[in-house]
Amino acid sequence: MAQVAISTCDICVGGPGDNYCEQCQQLFCDGCKISHLRTSMSKNHTFKSGPDNKPDVKQNCKEHDENFIYYCMECDTPVCKICAIKKHKTHDLSEIKESTKTIKSAVNNNIETKIRNLQSNIAKIDQGTQKYQTDVKEVIHAIQEEGRQLKELIEKKVEALIISIQANEAKNLQTLQSIVNEFQTALDKAKEQQKMYEDTQRIEDNIKMLQRLKQIKSEIKTIDEKLFPVMPLVEYDKRKATKIELDKLFGELTFGEIIKRKENMRQHKNDR
Fold first, then answer.
1. Closest to 21 in 3D by CA, of 48, 52, 41
2. Residue ranges of the domains in the chain?
3. What are the alphabetically sorted keywords of the record (predicted)?
4. Buried (b) or exposed (e) across 200-231, using 16+ Cβ within 10 A?
5. For the chain, does the N or the C end have fewer beta carbons within 10 angstroms?
6. pLDDT digits over 201-252, tens only?
7. Verdict on whether the full-model pTM lies above 0.85
């Protein structure tokens, strides 16, 4: 059974958007709905609630049957000339074309920033992976140098250390590839939204374009842009080789594990 996308509150962008204001044409969570109804200008607004709370896009004002010619920046909704005078008189209004142009630019910037950050992180991981593999080779070489000094007596120890390093390398490289795949998946989603954005350029109706852009903007917010991980490291503290206490002749092998950082939730707020 296909999963239904859960809408989020257009105001706080945090809670579920279970309530749809028919006048403002916005989704509200329960808390924001209560705050909305407490204000004098919106105390008589009506809401639809439930999973099918958001109706089809209206081309005209539902209350006055007038064309939308303005966009209220404060309410984030298109308004007709009558609503502009009666309900949005003190609000910051702009022409619908200009607002569409502004939002279109913002959506495009969000897409480009998201793609740029994802590509940058992938490039950093690739660079860090190359350095890590170089470090692995250098450590192996150091161990082999000590192994040659101890000759046949310590050959088994050398082999054990190399196996340990290579096993850790294989594990870390697998983890790094998994992280790269996660970044690539996010990048593919961002590029998909970019393609959808490019498709909107052929839409002539401003209202339809506005709704499509808002949809793309909402989808962009859901793309999980993970932070660049702490790269693994490997070091080897060499000791002078002697014939006493074989285990003590070898240095300490140190591994730096990969740390997958959690995304800063403030990132989502900055995308609004």
1. 48
2. 1-55, 57-91, 98-270
3. Coiled coil, Metal-binding, Zinc, Zinc-finger
4. beeeeebbebbbbbeebbbbbbebebbebbeb
5. N
6. 888 888 888 888 899 898 888 888 778 888 999 998 886 655 566 667 677 8
7. no
